[in-house]
Write a structure and sequence with these properties.
Blueprint lengths: L1 H29 L3 H27 L4 H10 L5 H9 L3
Helix pairs in contact: 1-2, 1-4, 2-3, 3-4
C-alpha cells in the first residue's frame, strides 16, 4: 500500500509540475489550450487517486489528523511530493 502511494505521489506531483510549468504557459502565453485539457484531466484523476490512497495510508500508518492535513496541503504545492516522500513515507 505504501509503495503504491509513493508511486502515485510521485506521478501526481510530476503532473502538477507539468500543468503549472508547461501546460499553463502554453495556454496563456502562446494560446495553445490543448495541453491544459489533457494534462489537467490527467492531473485531476491522479489527484483523486492521491486522496484515496492518502486516506488508506492515514489508517495504515495511524497518522494524526495534523500529519494527514500536512500531507494534503503539501500535495497542493509544487515539489511538495518530495517533502511527502522524504518526511512521511520513509522506509
Amino acid at each position: 500500500m505504501i509503495k503504491a502511494f509513493k508511486i502515485i505521489t510521485l506521478i501526481e506531483g510530476f503532473s502538477l509540475l507539468l500543468l503549472l510549468f508547461l501546460a499553463m504557459p502554453l495556454k496563456y502565453i502562446w494560446n495553445l489550450p490543448q495541453m491544459v485539457q489533457v494534462v489537467g484531466m490527467a492531473h485531476g484523476i491522479l489527484f483523486l487517486l492521491f486522496v484515496v490512497f492518502a486516506i488508506m495510508v492515514f489508517y495504515e500508518l495511524k497518522w494524526s489528523i495534523k500529519t494527514f492535513g500536512i500531507v494534503m496541503f503539501a500535495s497542493l504545492i509544487p515539489f511538495g511530493y518530495i517533502y511527502i516522500d522524504k518526511k512521511h513515507l520513509k522506509d
